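Researcher: Go.
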Amino acid sequence: MDNVLEVGRIAWENLIDLGLFFFIALFIAASVDMLYLDVVARRSFKKHGLLGILFTTVLGAFSPFCSFTVIPLIRKLLRGGVPLSAVMAFWIASPAMDPPIFALTAKEIGLPLATARLLGAVILAMSAGIIILLLEKRGQFKDVLRPVKTEADRVVGTVKTAQVAAPAAAAGTTGSTGILVLDTPAPGEAAATSCEPGACGTSEEDDEDDGAPWWPQAKASLKSRRNWRITGRNFVRDTFSLGKWLVFACVFEGIIRVYVPDSAITTVLGGKGWLAIPLAVLISIPLYLNGVGAIPIVGGLLAKGMAQGAAVSFLLAGSITTIPAMVAVRSVVNNKVFAFYLAFGMLGSMLLGAVAQLIL
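Model: Structure:
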């Protein structure tokens, strides 16, 4: 009974710690929706592919989000049509490194390993983004979101004049900028109940962009009461649909910390052979807790004789392949994207760990 209570205590503390960032991510995602920031991001990243990947990698490395709390923002960007290449770079870099994690890593296990962790996270994120960008140019990764059965509301904004000429008189008003603000459902919107926007494919019509200025769209959206209602409903729905996985992740972390003895970790990872690197990647799946919690674990393993290359692999792979992170990712993207995310994270971490083993 004491162990169960300890699991509950750990889970509750983690929920308190992560809850703030989770709701910050939900708020940012809602702001992206209301202010059409996804339109700005989509246009920018489609125009500047490599620079977009570099920007999101650096942004991710300085953001405070872990692999789970970043999910609401990731889903909103993908639903808004932002290329997976740019999103994936941010997605991988964000939980792997941020300034507090770098400082704590340097203090606890040394500046060389902290630097290796930082460079490894940047290289891993950039490489994933570039590979996906090349695949996107070949027509891959057009459909990335996981299909859902619940109704998905979308904020209504600008529509091309040719598309709204008929319904304009009955459905809303058109300003001098050519923006149509709808206060009733747009034609065909009520039928969009089987998938989230973008989850079941992207038609040519969805990909069209009339090039309308962003800020007038945002102002029109902020004045639409219907858009505020839709954003509120989406916020509540995302809180419950993603929040249940956050609770699961926190409970699972508590179970690991209570029931898995430290001696088991030391036995598996306490060697200096090359086999320690793939073992470190595999063992990070159940044992990596979070970016900060992994630091004392690695410190103890290094004291027991763990190879530094294996330590780098553990720190890099853990942020990607830990079970709570995989649960979060799987709740958003389809099997193809999830398989790439998992395989690239594991293989890339092994390779970077091997390089670190030669250098450090």
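Model: The longest helix spans residues 225-259.
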